[in-house]
UniProtKB/TrEMBL annotation:
<comment type="similarity">
    <text>Belongs to the PqqC family.</text>
</comment>
<feature type="domain" description="Thiaminase-2/PQQC">
    <location>
        <begin position="23"/>
        <end position="232"/>
    </location>
</feature>
<dbReference type="InterPro" id="IPR039068">
    <property type="entry name" value="PqqC-like"/>
</dbReference>
<dbReference type="InterPro" id="IPR004305">
    <property type="entry name" value="Thiaminase-2/PQQC"/>
</dbReference>
<dbReference type="GO" id="GO:0033732">
    <property type="term" value="F:pyrroloquinoline-quinone synthase activity"/>
</dbReference>
<keyword id="KW-0560">Oxidoreductase</keyword>
<dbReference type="InterPro" id="IPR011845">
    <property type="entry name" value="PqqC"/>
</dbReference>
<protein>
    <recommendedName>
        <fullName>Pyrroloquinoline-quinone synthase</fullName>
        <ecNumber>1.3.3.11</ecNumber>
    </recommendedName>
</protein>
<comment type="pathway">
    <text>Cofactor biosynthesis; pyrroloquinoline quinone biosynthesis.</text>
</comment>
<dbReference type="GO" id="GO:0018189">
    <property type="term" value="P:pyrroloquinoline quinone biosynthetic process"/>
</dbReference>
<dbReference type="Pfam" id="PF03070">
    <property type="entry name" value="TENA_THI-4"/>
</dbReference>
<comment type="function">
    <text>Ring cyclization and eight-electron oxidation of 3a-(2-amino-2-carboxyethyl)-4,5-dioxo-4,5,6,7,8,9-hexahydroquinoline-7,9-dicarboxylic-acid to PQQ.</text>
</comment>
<keyword id="KW-0884">PQQ biosynthesis</keyword>
<dbReference type="InterPro" id="IPR016084">
    <property type="entry name" value="Haem_Oase-like_multi-hlx"/>
</dbReference>
Length: 254
């Protein structure tokens, strides 16, 4: 029998399925962006129209990136069944047939806020930091092991509550927000649980070692940080200290 080397670090046993699930969900409890001050201002009716426009315009960068990161993920997948499942995410955002898709529904929101559609889709007015943050997510999904890339999507576990809060808060608090422009969030109430259920099952089945499990939990932290950082830069540019960088969208004076 080999002697035990006291200097050799102990090998951590994998978490149980229940422990793994709890570790993933605890990330949302700690750092999902529903806790961000900008989120609370937005949903609480504390922003003016220009600030809401800035949020919608910058968030378009993220919406536009989602099908690109999913396409990048699929380009590395050899499992046909996984590709058949995952492609629905691209269809959800880009549309398919008569279904316009989430990006079109987001543009209906920016249209309703009085933003020029060509200006929004050009992303010329987005904050430079917003675009860097969003592209970091695309790179992460392109480069990380497949199970870790899938895990980064698990912030969708926490999304339905924020969508319900957004619909109720914005309709109640902003006279310039109409019911029709909330279609994106209403559709995500059914899409996000479907996607997160599949992704969570996949991650639990394919993250076998403790190291893989911890990398998946870290991926959820990373994605929460991506969402949080987007609100950080919006708050800095448009709320306090309200320092809009050169070339970025400048709201009209009230």
């Amino acid at each position: 029998m080999d002697e035990i080397n006291p200097r050799r670090p102990a090998v951590s046993a994998p978490m149980s399925v229940e422990e793994f699930d709890a570790a993933i969900r605890s990330v949302g409890t700690e750092r999902y962006h529903d806790k961000h001050v900008f989120h609370k201002l937005l949903h609480g009716g504390k922003l003016n129209k220009g600030q809401v426009q800035a949020w919608a315009l910058n968030r378009y960068c993220y919406q536009e990136a989602v099908p690109r990161k999913d396409a990048a993920f699929m380009s590395r997948v050899h499992d046909r069944a996984l590709r058949r499942e995952w492609i629905s995410r691209i269809h959800d955002h880009d549309g398919l047939g008569d279904e316009p898709g989430g990006i079109e529904r987001w543009l209906i929101l920016t249209d309703g806020l009085g933003l020029d559609r060509d200006y929004v889709t050009s992303m010329r007015g987005a904050l430079p930091a917003t675009r860097h943050i969003v592209e970091s997510y695309v790179r992460f999904v392109r480069e990380q092991p497949l199970v870790v890339a899938v895990a980064s999507s698990l912030t969708e576990l926490f999304a339905p509550s924020i969508h319900r809060e957004r619909i109720a808060g914005m309709l109640e608090n902003y006279e310039f927000i109409g019911d029709g422009v909330m279609a994106y969030f209403r559709r995500r109430l059914s899409q996000a649980p479907r996607d997160s259920d599949f992704a969570l099952c996949y991650v639990k089945a394919n993250a076998i070692t403790r190291a893989e499990q911890e990398a998946c939990v870290d991926a959820v932290r990373f994605k929460c940080n991506v969402l949080w950082a987007q609100l950080d830069v919006l708050n800095h540019a448009y709320v306090t200290p309200a320092l809009v960088p050169p070339g970025a969208f400048v709201p009209e004076k009230d």
